[in-house]
């Protein structure tokens, strides 16, 4: 069946068919990826502007499939979420990132915070705070070395239980950042009640920040609001010196982006930090 191009009313184009065949095949391959060691983490440095110091990194998942090549997390994470596979993959990500931090601390790297992305499905687990505490203990990593990145949508889906869970994580000393901030629909009143360490300004506001006055206004407003609610800010997707200059002048605390560094293999991250310290 093919679209006649006039009203687009046809249901299943060859493109859609190919697309869903790929999704199904990727889903199958993903089930084995974890045991077969095809998953790994890379670490993108995060820079504290006031101290010009690397204080942490975001752990980002990579999948090198022998069959499909490098598959983007933007494609396979939603597949993992809808199949429930994200729970075991998410546990693996947390354990691997924490083990990595422990290794870096043992190697004498200064106190580091590793930021780990948490999908809504993971966040919804009733025993999440216990699970994470257990993983921290197993890895021998203090809770303040872990920051969970949660999107607004994940946090706001069920605001009441979310508030409680966030409170529990906070009491255990685990940090929380709201990812892609500004793209969702956060209720500002909840934001005030939640114990959130940091707002992560979405890269869609950063991209044209040196020329687009609307993006400038949004970024500045987020930074000022965060400050008055005692939260920090980090801008993601910072690619140019001009973007950095604007963010610095607006009072943004931290930055992450290609301008400073791409996501790095663990060893490369270690060298990057040691060069930065030395
Ligand atoms: P995200 O959490 O918003 O991560 C930021 C993305 O922007 C990453 O893409 C990163 O590589 C990319 N990036 C960093 N600096 C720049 C820059 O200067 N310019 C541009 N254009 N992009 C930059 P990546 O690694 O492909 O990840 C895509 C998304 O996949 C992530 O978006 C996150 O939502 C998801 N993801 C990645 N790893 C995990 C994970 O371990 N668990 C979960 N649940 N989701 C993950
Ligand atoms: Ca993130
Ligand atoms: Ca983000
Ligand atoms: Ca994003």
Automatic annotation (TrEMBL):
Domain EAL: 23-277
Protein name: Diguanylate cyclase/phosphodiesterase
Organism: Castellaniella defragrans (strain DSM 12143 / CCUG 39792 / 65Phen) (Alcaligenes defragrans)
Full-protein positions shown: 668 to 945 of 947
């Amino acid at each position: 069946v093919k679209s006649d191009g006039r009203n687009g009313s046809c249901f299943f184009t060859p493109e859609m068919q190919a697309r869903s065949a790929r999704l199904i095949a990727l889903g199958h391959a993903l089930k084995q990826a974890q045991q077969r060691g095809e998953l790994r983490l890379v670490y993108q440095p995060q820079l504290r502007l006031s101290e010009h110091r690397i204080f942490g990194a975001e752990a980002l998942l990579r999948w090198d499939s022998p069959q499909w090549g490098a598959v983007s997390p933007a494609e396979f994470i939603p597949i993992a979420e809808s199949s429930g596979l994200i729970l075991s993959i998410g546990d693996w990500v947390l354990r691997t990132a924490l083990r990595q931090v422990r290794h870096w601390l043992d190697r004498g790297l200064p106190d580091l915070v590793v930021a780990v992305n948490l999908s809504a499905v993971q966040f919804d687990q009733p025993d999440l705070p216990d699970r994470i505490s257990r993983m921290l203990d197993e890895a021998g990593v203090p809770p303040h070395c872990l920051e969970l990145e949660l999107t607004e949508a994940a946090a706001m889906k069920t605001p009441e239980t979310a508030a409680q869970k966030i409170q529990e994580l906070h009491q255990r000393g685990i940090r929380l950042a709201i990812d892609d901030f500004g793209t969702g629909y956060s209720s500002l009143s909840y934001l005030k009640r939640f114990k959130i360490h940091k707002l992560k300004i979405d890269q869609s506001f950063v991209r044209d920040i040196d020329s687009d006055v609307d993006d400038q206004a949004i970024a500045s407003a987020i930074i000022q609001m965060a400050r008055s609610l005692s939260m920090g800010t980090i801008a993601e997707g910072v690619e140019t010196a001009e973007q950095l200059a604007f963010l610095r002048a607006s009072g943004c605390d931290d930055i992450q982006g290609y301008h400073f560094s791409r996501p790095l293999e663990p060893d490369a991250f270690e060298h990057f930090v040691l060069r930065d310290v030395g």
